[in-house]
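Tutorial sheet, problem 5. The two components below are modelled jointly, 525 residues in total.
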Amino acid sequence: MKKYLKVWWIFTFNSFQSQLLTRWAVLLFLISKLLRFFIFVVFIVLLLNKTNTLASYTLNQTLFFFLTFSLIDSLVQTIFREVYRFRPAIINGTFDFYLIKPFSPLFRALATGPDIIDLILLVPLFGAIVYFMIQLNISDPLRVGIYIFLIFIALIISLAFHILVLSLAVFTTEIDHAILVYRDITGMGRFPMDIYREPLRGILTYLLPVGIMMSFPVQALIGILSPVLILYAAVFAFILLFAAMKVWNISLQHYSSASS
Amino acid sequence: MINKYFSIFNISWQNMLIYRLNFVLWRFRTVLQFLLVYFVWWTVFQTQTSVFGYTEASILTYVLISALTRAIVLSSRIMDIGGHISEGGIVNFLVKPQGIIGFYFARDLADKLLNISFVIFELAGIYFLLKPEIIIQTNINILLQFILSIVLAMVLYFALSFAFGLLAFWLENIWGIYFLFFMSIEALGGGLFPIDILPERFANMILLTPFPYLLYFPAKVYTGTLGYDQLMSGFTILSIWTVISWVLMKRVLNAGLRMYTAVGH
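Model answer (C-alpha cells):
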C-alpha cells in the first residue's frame, strides 16, 4: 500500500507538472468547464423560476442533484483521467512497459494521471454542496453519512466502468471513445431520474446504473430513498466491480503486444 | 478538378465505414445527449401548457430540429488539422496537387452525409417510440429559409473550426482553444435551450456572437416563429459572420504556410 501511494504521488506530481507546462491551456480548459457548469445552473434557475418544480423537485433540490452529479463527475475525472490515454498505449505498444513494471498494470492504467483542472473545480463544488445542504435544512448526521456512503458507492461503480473500458481497449482497438460513451450515459444523471419516461427510467436507474450513481445520494439526503435501495446500491456496486475485475483478467490473457 | 475532390469524399466515406462500431457508438452518444434535453422539456410540459412562450409542440419541435441541425452542422473532422500541422502531415498538401481547404471540405461533406443518414433513422425511431407532439413544417418558403440557414451555418462552422485548428502553426497545444470553442457552442449555441428564454438583454448580446447561428437560428427558422425583422437580422448577422470567418481562415492559412518549416524525413 505504501509503495502504491509513493508511486501514485510520483506520477501525480509529474502529471501536474506536465499539465502546467501550458498554463494558458489549463486556464482555457478551466474556463470552458466553468462555462458549461454555469450555463446548466442558469438553465435550471430560469426553468424552475417559471415552473416552481421539476418532476416534483424544488429549485434547490434540482440544483443539488446537478451539484452532486458535478461532484461525482469531477472526482472521477480527477482520479481516473489516465484511462483516456490507455487506447493509444495499447496501439503503440506502450502497454508492454506497464506489464513489466513491479506494480499492477491496472493501477498504472487507471490512476496515474490525475487531472489538475477537475481537482481545482472540486474546491468550489464542495463549498456549493455544503451551502445547499444548509439551504435544504439537512442537519441529520445519519442522512449526511448515507449521502457520503452513496457517493463512495458511485465511485466504486465508476471504477468498475473504467476497468471495463480498459478491458474493452485490450479486446478491440476499434472503439476510440468508449470512455466518452460512459460519460454521456452518466451525463443523463445531471437531472433527477424522475424526468425520464418508463422503461428508460428503470433502465437508467437500476441497470446502467446512472440513477444509483447520481440520484440515489441526493434522494437519501432528502429522505426519500428506502433502506432496501441503499442495500441494493451497495450490492450492485460490489458485484459490478467483481465482474469488471474478472473481465480485466480475461482481457489480459487475450493481450498480444502491438509493439513488435 | 471536381473528380479529385469527389475521390477524397469517396475515400473518406469508405474510411469511416471501416470503423462501423466506432461510428455507431458515436451516434449512440448523440442520442443520449438528445434524450437528456428532450426529457427535461417533456417533464416541464407534464404540468404546464406554456413556458417562456413555448408550447409542448413548439419546444419539442425545436429540440428535434436542433438535434438534426447538430448532426448536419457540427459533424466534422476538421479538428484533425491541428494534429496534421503539429505532426507534419500538412507537408502532403504542399507537394500534392490538391488544396488544403478543398481536401478538408470534401472530407467534412462525407462525414456530414454519413451523420445525416443516421440521424434521420434515429429521429424517426425516436418519433415513433416517444410520439411527441411536433410541428411538421409544410411552408415551402420557411423550408427554403431553413435549408439556407443550415448551409450558411455549415460554412460558418467549417471556417471557424479551420481557423482555430490552424493556430497549431504557432501553438504547441490547441486543445484548450478547441475545448473552449466547443463549450461556447454547447453553452451559447442553443442546444440545451432556446436562447430566447434568457433575459432579453443577454439574449440580444449572445445573438451578436456566431454561436447561436449554428443551432438555435436554423431550428427557430424551421419552427416558423421568427418575425420578418428577426429573420432578416438573423440572416444578416449569420452572413456577416460567415464572410468574416472565411476571410479570417484564408488569412490565417496563408500566414501559417508562409512561416511553416518542415523538418524530418
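Marking note: The radius of gyration of chain B is 20 Å. Full credit if you identified this.
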